[in-house]
Amino acid sequence: MEEILVTGGTGYIGSHTVVELIESGYKPIIVDDFRNSKPFILDRLAEITGEEITQYKLDCADEEALSEVFEKHPNIAGVIHFAADKAVGESAINPLKYYDNNIGGLVTVLKVLLKFKVQHFVFSSSCTVYGEPESPVVIESTPIQNAASPYGDTKIICERIIQNTVQANPNFNATLLRYFNPIGAHPSALIGELPQGIPNNLVPYITQTANGIRESLTVYGDDYPTEDGTCIRDYIHVVDLAKAHVNAIKWLSNEPAGVVEAFNIGTGKGSSVLEIIRTFEAVNQLKIKYAIGPKRAGDVIQIYANPTKAKTVLNWTAKYTIADALKHSWNWEKSLLTLK
Ligand code: WQD
């Protein structure tokens, strides 16, 4: 059974990917320092999969500690690297935290991957690398712009680091998965998003407003040049996103060393902020209190994926609808109310 190391494996996307790896016959090994997740997620993963999952509590920027994991597990075939900070707003306030953790962490993981001759690498990138695109529908060859935040900047820099590293050491291959907007939770409602503090992202803010943790949602601007005046994004169910990582690992296993490919992991459909609110209300039969507020610095007007390359090359397409994701996110939020 192929062993795959998953950094940040108890995080939002990491935990859902661990489930999909197990369900596809892989043996995931989690490294996580729980700075942006909680240890109880490990019990939930065991409950969903019926497997006890090997995990090590460590910062993947700690080269010595990470090397010890590879010494214990000499057959690790691939690494999926999620461990990074991801709050756009916070990165503008504290850019050095983002450069240190996101870039420093990647450099260490790549050094260890080379040292132990690991063959495959999947990187968690983001549509933010496209900045404010000329056309709202982006393909992988759309020019990489100056990102709208230090967070997005780290993703651009990390992609370049991976490309240069593979070029200099063509004995491993890599995929750069450019996520659009991950939303939703596992249908079991046993794992989902665990924002630390006030949610930066739209959907967790909606679910926390729905369950009374937040007084009201602020819609950041309704006079953008879009149909209803609010920004448009490509919201993708986190389980669909997780499955894309398994397809990427499978694809890399049949590709020669030296290959590096970027993929848009999105649905190809754009939804506005107001559409998300309306859909959440309809599918969960409740009302969300919201008010229109000022625009948020760094927001792009609209961006969504052309996901053709992932479909034709990775044999991957998103299957869940926005309604599914918003139902699952509400079920997860409600489950947190009963958390001991
Ligand atoms: C979506 C829309 C907001 C909150 C970022 C990262 C991206 C990815 C997802 C990691 C925007 C509006 C939001 C709120 C609002 N990160 N909004 N009120 O900024 O598109 O993407 O998160 O994987 O890499 O860039 O996501 O959910 O913050 O915002 O009106 O309280 O919702 O203005 O139009 P974003 P988001």
Automatic annotation (TrEMBL):
Residue ranges occupied by any NAD-dependent epimerase/dehydratase domain in the UniProt entry? 4-266
Naming one, the record's GO cellular component terms include: cytosol
Catalytic activity as recorded in UniProt: UDP-alpha-D-glucose = UDP-alpha-D-galactose
Look up the record and name the cofactor or cofactors this protein needs. NAD(+)
Which pathway does UniProt place it in?
Answer: Carbohydrate metabolism; galactose metabolism
Molecular function in Gene Ontology: UDP-glucose 4-epimerase activity
PANTHER family from the entry? UDP-GLUCOSE 4-EPIMERASE
Q: What is this protein called?
A: UDP-glucose 4-epimerase
Q: Which organism is it from?
A: Putridiphycobacter roseus
Q: What gene is this protein translated from?
A: galE
